[in-house]
Amino acid sequence: MCSTLKDTSSIPFQDAYDWLCSFDKYGWIFGLERIIVLLEQLGNPHEELKVIHVAGTNGKGSVCKYVSSILQKAGYSVGLYLSPHVERFSERIIVNNKEISNEDFACLVSQVRPVVDAMKKQDNTPTFFEIVTALAFLYFKNCTVDYAVVEVGLGGRFDATNVVHPLVSVITNISLEHTDILGKDVASIAFEKAGIIKDHVPAVSAAVGDARVTIDRVSKERNAPITWIDHTLWKRKSYQGRYQEFMIQGSFKDYSVKTSMLGGHQGENIALAIAAVEQLQMGGVYLTDSDIQDGIEAATHPGRMEIISEEPLILLDGAHNPAGMSMLAKTLREDFSDHRLVLVLGMLKDKDLKTMVSTIVPLSDVIIVTKSGNPRAADPQQLKKIIEGFDVNRTMLVVDSIPHAIDHAKRIAKQKDLICVTGSLFTVGEARRYVLLGKS
Predict the structure, then answer these.
(1) What is the pTM of this model?
(2) Is 72 exposed, middle or buried (0-12, 13-18, 19+ CB in 10 A)?
């Protein structure tokens, strides 16, 4: 428990968690009004945090992990706020690589719950994500972290995390996602993401095309100097099984770095992270070249391009949108082309299923269609029909659960086959728990 976190209640963890989950039904409601009220009642803990704020379509979590790891290697205490979680809720709120304990979580809920109850009586009920964001900020304040690395939940402009005034704002890449909420085109989505850019606060982005034009305009309007990352600033030097090496061109020097996080696109994520910490250095934060190199090498991100078994070879990747699936397909072509691919696919019904299926199916030799326990999971029979629409002769099987799908994949996999589990983070989370812990 963090030293300043008082045990104000003996509320059991499960009661605290069940209470929090009761707010799932409120879904996503954009606007900062509720989170502002909630945080004010808690003493505005976010105002005491030095924040690195990260938005974008894909790569946000990886960039957050790299930045957090670099700062920790330099000896700083670092809070890390991520979403969603893959296996455990505690993955969302981390200090110095340690997930929040059940005891600390229950203690925080006991402080936040009376405020939320009062807001409910005023017909101003906060959402699940807004409450979790408040819990994270309060926890980081109580733990007196030196820095907090904060991932945007959805969009940026009206996301609950956008109450912070960061040291640097990072926007990864932009592609079509959540078009019913963020806008129908890339420029509109980029405008929402660019909402995290603050007046005179440096920004870093890897956006291209219309998204870059939009973000550039917003940064100029806010007098926020921006550093652009493109493919000319990084190059993959080597790939060997569990590791790959990149050469990254920074503002100050070139960095030769090693990472266990797979996929050629990690070059872009690392370049973004280095650009962000260089902005911190320019602001007076002491970081050495070794801190940057060692931090990148130490960073991990479970469930994203993660190998969890060698025999048989099992790769997990939570590709949950078309851009993510394209990155996975590119990695499979570049780094796993000598393997026959057994694909375990479980997706969410509110995603662009046809585009994602059309990207990954041509690479697959055998497809096992399944579903996670999430209520939003797509019907496997629906996925089967979509796949047959692209290739009616593809070898395919429908299995009712992810554990059964994993078991079947293991039975049919030959020595040089690759089992790839993908389609959503919920699918990957269940697969990871089952393979590593034997829990379904």
Answers:
(1) 0.92
(2) buried
